[in-house]
Amino acid sequence: MRFGIQPLQFADVMSLITGERLVDLSRFNFPQICMAAVKGGFHFLELTLDMGYVLPGSLDGEVMEKFVEMKKEEEVAYSVHLPLWSIEPSSPNEYIRKASVESLIHSIEVAEILKPECYVLHSTGALAAEFTRLVMPKHYRELVDRYMLFHAAKSVEEILSGTSIPPRKLALENVEFPFELTREIVDQFDLSICFDTGHLLAGYSGEYTVTEFLKRHWDRIVEIHLHDGFHREVNGNVVRRDHLPIGSGVLRVSELMGCLDEGGFKGPVVFELGFDEAKHSLKVICEQCPGTAVK
């Protein structure tokens, strides 16, 4: 199994910005941070392309060349997570939707030099997620979801026509939006899927178990985001958690690994966790799934 990591989580970014380690933002060195993950045992990295906007210059040409060198010298493979902060491909506001598409196309162009295995995309963003949380009759909800889906599909079409990437390189992630609708875009444009376990366990993407999701969408899954999660009712309120270390939620990790091994999954399994949490999670997997070969 090819285990990887997102070397820089949101909390890590904020820690670098506010902590004493990076008072001068010009000292931020993304390749150096990624190299630390490689030296820690992870040779598959998913690069978060929001960094190019949050810290201007952090993904300029010189930096990208360093990532290319790392790929050659350290035998590192990459995927990239396209921007999601302030991005809404499913917005009915055409100015916002068009700007989101423009930003996503720019990020793909920046990352092409790495020849990433896939480009992970949230085809619906925070606005669509907010609408899914509204209490309304079922037929109203279906109407709103379809409306957002229409605009998301339009954005995907424009991303594909505005870049040279093959459709199967674009992997839509299950997020806080009914995934049976997202799957329609996958089929319409012949795309791939990034399966996020924690989002599913938190109840964001529909009524699936992890194994049901794998079996239903196996034909298009090219990458897995691995983290634990749960959703449960506490004092009449639904509590949702994701991005937890393996063993901290309800994920049946031995069942997941068994399905991946049985199906011969060749894609990367990427921890969306901090480095220490990822290493702990990998240890748990090795203990609970002794037959899993770690690469």
Name the descriptors.
295 residues; 17% strand; two-stranded antiparallel sheet; eight-stranded parallel sheet; alpha/beta; single chain
List the helices and strands and how they pair.
Blueprint: E1 2-5, H1 10-18, H2 30-39, E2 44-48, H3 51-54, H4 61-74, E3 77-81, H5 94-111, E4 119-121, H6 126-132, H7 138-161, E5 170-173, H8 179-189, E6 192-196, H9 197-201, H10 210-217, E7 221-226, E8 228-234, E9 237-244, H11 253-263, E10 268-271, H12 275-288
Parallel strand pairs: 1-10, 2-3, 3-4, 4-5, 5-6, 6-7, 7-10
Antiparallel strand pairs: 8-9
Summarize the structure.
The chain is an alpha/beta fold and 295 residues long. The chain has twelve helices and ten strands. The protein has helices spanning 10-18, 30-39, 51-54, 61-74, 94-111, 126-132, 138-161, 179-189, 197-201, 210-217, 253-263, 275-288, and strands spanning 2-5, 44-48, 77-81, 119-121, 170-173, 192-196, 221-226, 228-234, 237-244, 268-271.
